[in-house]
Amino acid sequence: MLKFGNRPEPFVDSWLIESLENVSFRLNKPENLGKVIGFDEPWENPGSLAGTVIQTEDGIKLYYRGFPANLPADTSDAQTLCLAQSRDGLNFTRAEINETDYFGIKENNIVRMDTFCHNFAPFYDTNPDCPEDRRYKAVGGIKELGGIYVFVSPDGIHWTDPVGHAVITKGDFDSMNTAFWDPHAGLYRCYNRIFHKAPRKDYRAIQSCVSTDFIHWSTPIENTYDVDSVNELYTNATRPLPGAEHILVSIPMRFNNSRIIGDGHPKGSMGVSDSVLMTSRDGLFWNRTAHEPWISGGLYSHEWTQRCFITGPGIATVGERWMFYVTKNYEWDDGGIWAYSVPKFRLMSLFADDRGGKIVTKPVHFEQDFIHLNFATSACGNVRVKVLDENGNLRFESDELFGNYISARVRFAGLENTVGRIVLELSDAHVYAIGSSME
């Protein structure tokens, strides 16, 4: 029996759904809020790209890779980890760290400079048992270094390697590998690059492993999906969904290296790319409920070359919006990091047009008298909530709901500790999530 009411349930998969009538899933594509960082400094352009996003009470930290034009290869020890900070998620300033001498430039926002910076990926550890002097953690490393190493820090700036050797060695790793604490499962997860073996041609794919201490990791297992796809997934950007941490979200950059438009890339590189949205409830099996890109190229030609739309791991919450940070125009002179945004819990929706539709949930055990809805209607649209008992008889029915709300509350006295189904009747309306409060 599914428990209902103690957490939000975003409509990103069919976990809660028993039947749909004239209702379909819709992807809620993010709003482009503009460029927040240009790769303008000598230690940055043009091969720089978004790293990870960390939000604490001190604000938003955006780590990113600095990869200047003259670096010879991914193994260069002149790659840098850079840090920018913001309070509002839109106006970033480079942190004044000034601890690294970058070929005579001592005033800079460089956190460290070495080969690990090719894909150094910090995160803030919310494990309640984590020592405070190790609250910041990171993974970094490529195959030429032996695999993935782990790092710890008290402040996100000064890092040490507690082990001294690679802790994950099975894989290819030439990507932005990510790690984080999964509070729902009570363990650390690391998602990283592998080349999937295929009869015609191997292709880029994602694998993961887990750990209870961040030092000793399980054997990696490749992702499986609800669709049979041979798309090359170049990055992964995997994190728990804020406020609904029982769901993992991944926003890989999808790579098609056989296409080129016009004169192509300034380096002559083949390929075009976009990004897709995936979710998982166990970290291994992934749903591509939306069979379309999350972000794709527009009319600007620089968006139609290789390695565009790399989403950095991490989601910042600013007011009622989730913020994502995406590298665009990779290796072009105008490359940088853009902010994208959706309202909270609105990655996808269930939608019915003005002909009306109906959603029926599986049987659930209600844990409170309240049902919160994240929904939006047109001026003439509406949503109505009904509750059926175990035998399918109508117990409760709401008034007609309309408008646009992150967390509209409907109360049915006596609902708590009973079993039944929820019926949502929609007309010209999106329902993004239901469950507990989403404020």
According to DSSP, the number of beta strands is 36
Class inferred from helices and paired strands = mainly beta
End-to-end distance: 27 Å
How many strands, what sense, and barrel or not for the largest sheet? 11 strands, mixed
Q: Globular, elongated, flat, extended or rod-shaped: what is the shape?
A: globular
What is the count of DSSP helices, taking H or I runs of 4+ residues?
Answer: 0
What is the CA-based Rg, rounded? 23 Å
The average pLDDT value, as a whole number, equals: 95
Show unreliable segments: none
Share in β-strands? over 45%
Describe it.
- With 439 residues, the protein is mostly beta strands.
- It contains no helices and 36 strands.
- The strands form 7 sheets. Strands 1, 2, 3, 4, 30, 31, 32, 33, 34, 35 and 36 form an 11-stranded mixed sheet that branches. Strands 5, 26, 27, 28 and 29 form a 5-stranded antiparallel sheet that branches.
- A hairpin with a 7-residue loop joins β28 (321-328) and β29 (336-343).
- The chain starts with a strand and ends with a strand.
